[in-house]
Amino acid sequence: MRKTKVIATLGPATASPEMINALVQAGADVLRINCSHVTTAELRERIALIRATRSDVGVLVDIQGPKLRYSGEPRELRDGTTERFSFVELGLPESRGGVAGGLAVGQRLLLDDGRLEATMESIGADHLVVRVVRGGNLRTKKGVNLPDTEVGGSVLSDKDRADLEVVKKENVEIVAVSFVQRPSDIDEVRGIVGPTAQVFAKIERPQALERIDDICRVSDGVMAARGDLGVELPFQVVPAAQHKIARTALRHGVTSICATEMLESMITSTRATRAEVADVTGAVRDGFDAVMLSGETAVGANPVRAVEVMAAICEAAERDVTLPVVFADANPETAAVTAAASSLARRIGADSLLSLTYTGYSARLLAACRPNAPIIAATPTETAARKLKVAWGVYPVVSARDPDVEVSIGAALTAARDKGYVQRGNRVVVCASRLSPRSDADTIWLHTEP
Q1: pLDDT beyond 70 at 96
Q2: Buried/exposed 169-187: b ≥16 CB within 10 Å, e otherwise
Q3: CB 307 within 8 A of CB 26
Q4: What pLDDT does residue 323 have?
């Protein structure tokens, strides 16, 4: 039972019932909708399509955020020359006065995903004057990045807010917030979507990386969004940043996702490159809960094959990986029972752990302890089960929760048997609460399947 989860992005190549079923059967645990490529109405339609086709799969809505693009005429930038750009050309709002006061002389302006670089020499009311450091041909609609600028105000556009209302109404499991800079950005999104959706911070700006601990404290998860992160940081430090994101998330007990160009060649090829295999393997060894496919499944020539390859790489990598118990060490009281259950499972070579969890919280705590056996999470609602689809090593089953914990354990084991998760002779470490179905786990049992 693979522990690292696979997220597949829906797109023109896969937005059909047949392809959704095929992706899930190939190993996709969560389906992502990228709001950069759909309207708000199309977002609602895609959520409905997934729900109607596979009500057991998790949904991740990735909101667009303030992606800046150059809208001026094409021009040639020469090294050492000065250039004038209007805020409108760079996608910056004129009304926010230097992006809410964040622009300053000496900061960098990156264009075309970092291929072109300039330094700000002066800032006007509606324009920038920059000196070109690394020139080239600038074309319309190319990306604009301000790696040294902390943008003031909200990170949400009007479209983002409309998309978040859909997330709330449709009870989506996960929403990923683009271009997060500070914890308050997560608080703002949570204020819109309410308590139902898990809110994940996309770490793609240096400011977010510097505040990763504070962001983890208010988030349900983080995503190493290596596309823009690789533009705004020197490319050679991205692997270290990726490792830091994974281990910080693990220390705080929140979910982590590694994303961007993981199997990029499979957009056109049926085979991954050796470098891509090493990249996915590195993400597993870093301790990420999940790895994500983007264009590979959204517009790729063979989306199902991409999922199969991703799952196979994760399974192979997991055979040689034992992750440190950093969460239990950093949170000894919170993890007291779950860490003990994980340790017991390791010592006796248990085949699985069973977590009786009402909301999924106890199962996520158990996953943060990174046991060596898969976690079967028994929860009474399909909503909670779908939220657990992204959690490392967790296989959710829907099972009624009785006030008598012994009855609940029996029902959960029956549900696990029906799924094929528990078989004759298996040893299962059970973790649950004797006090109340809604209380944190306080007791451990050892069960041997007859």
Answers
A1: no
A2: ebebbbbbbbbbbbbebbe
A3: yes
A4: 87
For 73-121, the DSSP string reads --EEE-TT-EEEEEHHHHT--GGGHHHHHT--TT-EEEETTTTEEEEEE
Produce one character per residue of 221-242: b if its CB has 16 or more CB atoms within 10 Å, e if not. bbbbbbebbbbbbeeeebeebb
Q: Is the pLDDT of residue 356 over 70?
A: yes
pLDDT at 439 over 90: no
Tokens, residue 396: 């959710």
Task: Please give the C-alpha separations between residue 15 and each of 37, 66, 301, 389, in angstroms, as whole numbers.
Answer: 13, 25, 14, 20
Q: What tokens appear for 203 in the block? A: 């770490």
Which residues 6+ apart lie within 8 Å of 258 measured at CB?
A: 223, 224, 226, 242, 246, 283, 286, 288, 290, 291, 292
Per DSSP, 369 falls in state T
Q: What is the structure's pLDDT at 159?
A: 95
For each of the domains in the chain, give its residue range(s) and CATH number, in order of start.
5-65+155-318 (3.20.20.60), 68-145 (2.40.33.10), 326-448 (3.40.1380.20)
In this prediction, residue 98 carries a pLDDT of: 52
**Residue ranges of E strands in 284-387:** 290-293, 352-356, 375-379
Is the pLDDT reported for residue 114 higher than 80? Answer: yes
* 173/196 Cα distance (integer angstroms): 7
Q: What was the pLDDT predicted at 28?
A: 98
Distance of alpha carbon 289 from alpha carbon 88, whole angstroms: 40
Helix (H, G, I), strand (E, B) or coil at 387: helix
